[in-house]
Amino acid sequence: MEIFQELTISDITKFKDSILDQNKLSPEWERNIERENQIKERDKGTEEVSDSIAYCFNYVGKELSKATLILRERDSSLIVSNIVPKDPGGLEKSEYNALLNNFVKNNLSGLSCEISKFDVTLNDLVGEKIAEKFYSFSGSANKSTGRSHPCDEERWFDFIFSALENDKHMIDIEAIRFFLIEDGWDGQAALDLSLDYENTYYIMKYVSKRTI
């Protein structure tokens, strides 16, 4: 499954020296100080990001979508908080990742940075234990009846509860749908189950809080 990649630059000092002070950007990228100032004004009084400086860079090349890459200082590192397209609408994952990788390849040579994988498995997202419970349900259930059989329902609930208990946050329902289809479910059944996952997760989360 393709996801939006993440970038972390750990050497802020070197980044500032080479990219900001010496302006060592490739011809395909330019710094957008005006956008940085706009973000700074917008952030005033916002506790969550008021101390997080933004650095903005426009892609001005011809091969990829025109967009602005935004870096934020977080925990002694720089992260990409967003890549915003010039034209209305969002970027597809492939477009977003292409811009991110272009920025890394052309501007960050010699800098200490880490970029996440673009293609992930369910194990990557949730860990082996939870993935096993998902595939235990998916492999055993009647794919024409969903979770209607009591045994299938028990395995389904066991998977959801395990996700809640171990991660404390909901898995993206698009990811649930994707991996169900990949494992042989048709589109409508996968959609129904992914929506059921979302509803059941929140119910379990609410009940767990009431019982504490």
Order of helices and strands: EHEHEEEHEHHHHH
Which ranges are low-confidence, i.e. pLDDT below 50, for 5 or more consecutive residues?
Answer: none
Q: Summarize the amount of helix as a percent range.
A: 40-55%
Rg on CA atoms, Å: 21 Å
Q: Characterize the largest beta sheet: strand count, sense, and whether it forms a barrel.
A: 6 strands, antiparallel
Q: Care to count the β-strands? A: 6
User: How widely separated are the two ends?
Assistant: 36 Å
Which SSEs are present, and which pair or pack?
Blueprint: E1 7-9, H1 12-21, E2 29-31, H2 33-43, E3 54-59, E4 67-74, E5 77-85, H3 93-107, E6 113-115, H4 122-126, H5 128-140, H6 150-167, H7 173-182, H8 187-210
Antiparallel strand pairs: 1-5, 1-6, 2-3, 3-4, 4-5
